[in-house]
Here is the input.
Amino acid sequence: MTEDVIIRKTGDVGRITLNRPKALNALNQDMVEAMTTALLEWRDDPEVKAVVVDGEGEKGFCAGGDIRMLTESGKAGDGRAWKFWRDEYRLNTLIAEYPKPYVALIDGVTMGGGVGISVHGEFRVAGDRTLFAMPETGIGFHPDVGGAFFLPRLAGEIGTWMGLTGARLKTADCIAAGVATHYVPTERFGELIHALEHEKLDDDGERIDQLLDGFGAPAGSSDLSLSLGLIDAAFAGDDPDAILNRLEDAGDGWSKKQASILKSKSPTSVAVTLAALRKGAALSFRDVMVQDLRVSMRFLAEGSDFYEGVRAVILDKDNAPNWGARSADIDGYFTSLGGEDEMTFLD
Here is the structure.
């Protein structure tokens, strides 16, 4: 069992604590496997009424996945990236379909892989330090881990805006957008965890809902209310160029800023992401997971913007990626991987 995740049963709950605080609890292969094993065991354990997941440290719930490993594996062609994504997407599916209440305490940075192990659960509890984003277009990738499922199902075009620009939502924005279900002040998280561990819980989550309401407080006003109309007007449709043109033509400061952000992202990633979100709006969760694995693997191709994005943002940290031209074959990212490379599920 890995030390990177702490797994135990306390009272009526199965407890999972991500334990890589120096890496903002970013997921690795061992963590994914440990979480999956625990959730499968607890699924049929009558003593476990709910699952509670949090992250060690003050800064991050979970900041993503093992990007360095994925990059190295893609260049080596050794299959580690495929296995990680397949197993991670299986875990995301297990969470989305989990028959017991699943509570994610997302107080801190919650991005990429951290979104995948939180947003698909029944309860997502934001704290004062919550920072939620799907920033993948900034590293030449796409919002995977089910991003193409939940983003299109947010109100209006909020999800499209988030997916294309990597917009970062703070606590009140998370509540307003619906990516968090509850807000509890950070200073009360310890009390909340104690209550979840020691209260008598039920199978349907009603008592958890009462506890969360009891510890909750007003999250404050969200800036989304000021920009929602602009988001919906600019980010509609299937053409990334049209979206950029609408932002540039709008004339207001917010739209000008979004246009600048959008132009800084990988053109191929933006186009693939937009296509994935539009397709995902009509797909089941499992079909989105199939799509995610196909698209993720295609981003490992030689010459992909993914390697340049990782170099610029994560390795060299110069934040000056030299993106290639937009791919002429966006549809090719969505075609079958074939045979045993296709996505499969635990049951």
Summary: The longest helix spans residues 80-96.
